[in-house]
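Hi support team,

I've been running sequence recovery on a batch of backbones for a student project. Most finish fine, but this one hangs at about 90% for roughly twenty minutes before it completes. I'm not sure whether the input is malformed or the queue is just slow. I've pasted the structure tokens below so you can try to reproduce it. Let me know if you need the job ID as well.

Thanks,
M.K.
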């Protein structure tokens, strides 16, 4: 009997040790994640209490909770203004271009890096393309201004005059700026975004390419039937995350690069810059909070709808 009892206790002891070690591992992982959890709670969850400002006429002397309720008046102020359509159009249109072209160029650059054989050459190219991502938009704004400075002082105008053309006053003609902002955005972000796709490519088994070469597949066929199918999940995830922010513009880009010039508002004024001016010039906290709430709700709905479409087409690539 004693032998049987001892034999029965061993599995229990082993199970307890396994559970204890697993519990310790979970605690260690929780400690590692604790700073991110604290930041998320402080800067994302606690500010949610400010949602009520969207339905109030905020007064500093009364505070958030004692300020009078105004219902949907703050929302009406924005959506009935003459500039609402312009800023919404610019925000959605430019973000759509950013998502499309950034994804395409990031994937192409990642594939190009993957095809290069020299590791030193790959690191050199990655470093060069990644460096712009570490520059603040304030610095980028001054760099762009040096290139597009009005008159003969700007570098671009000097090149135009060198070929016999007339200098262009870039900061008074809004038609050029969708292309200018797109080029600046690609220069600033393609190197960083390509890292996600390059990391995914590094996980492809080399045997796929060896088998394709034995079958006589061309480089374009390898791209179509091997590389792109492996990249499809990460492309979908990145696109879904970007769609969630399609109603939010990159404030640093749209404020610092066009230098907040009024003549460029027809193509460079977006929701975020409009709200900034309303807050700084009018001091309308309620309207700013209302627009921020609308941005969050639109992003949330777009993520749900897009994920639902992806789940219908390819369930394995959906976020949830």
């Amino acid at each position: 009997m004693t032998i049987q009892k001892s034999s029965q206790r061993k599995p229990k002891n082993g199970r307890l040790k396994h559970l204890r070690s697993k519990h310790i591992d979970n605690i260690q992982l929780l400690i590692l994640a604790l700073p991110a959890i604290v930041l998320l709670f402080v800067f994302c969850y606690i500010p949610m209490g400010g949602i009520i400002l969207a339905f109030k006429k905020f007064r500093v002397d009364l505070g958030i909770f004692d300020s009078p309720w105004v219902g949907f008046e703050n929302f009406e102020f924005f959506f009935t203004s003459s500039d609402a359509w312009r800023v919404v159009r610019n925000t959605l249109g430019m973000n759509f271009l950013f998502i499309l072209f950034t994804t395409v160029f990031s994937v192409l650059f990642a594939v190009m890096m993957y095809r290069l054989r020299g590791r030193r050459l790959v690191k050199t190219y990655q470093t060069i393309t990644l460096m712009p991502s570490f520059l603040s938009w304030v610095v980028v704004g001054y760099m762009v201004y040096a290139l597009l400075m009005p008159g003969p002082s700007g570098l671009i105008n000097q090149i135009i005059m060198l070929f016999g053309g007339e200098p262009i006053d870039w900061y008074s003609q809004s038609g050029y700026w969708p292309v200018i902002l797109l080029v600046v955005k690609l220069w600033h972000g393609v190197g960083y975004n390509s890292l996600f796709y390059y990391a995914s490519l590094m996980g492809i088994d080399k045997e796929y390419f060896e088998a394709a070469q034995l079958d006589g597949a061309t480089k374009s066929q390898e791209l179509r039937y091997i590389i792109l199918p492996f990249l499809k999940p990460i492309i979908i995830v990145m696109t879904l995350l970007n769609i969630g922010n399609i109603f939010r513009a990159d404030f640093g880009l749209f404020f610092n690069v066009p230098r907040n010039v009024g003549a460029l508002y027809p193509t460079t004024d977006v929701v975020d810059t409009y709200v900034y001016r309303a807050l700084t010039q009018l001091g309308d906290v309620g309207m700013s909070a209302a627009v921020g709430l609308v941005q969050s709700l639109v992003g949330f709905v777009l993520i749900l709808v897009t994920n639902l479409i992806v789940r219908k087409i390819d369930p394995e690539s959906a976020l949830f």
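--
Follow-up from support: It reproduced on our side and the slowdown came from queue contention, not your input. Confidence is low (pLDDT under 50) at residues 1-10. No action needed from you.
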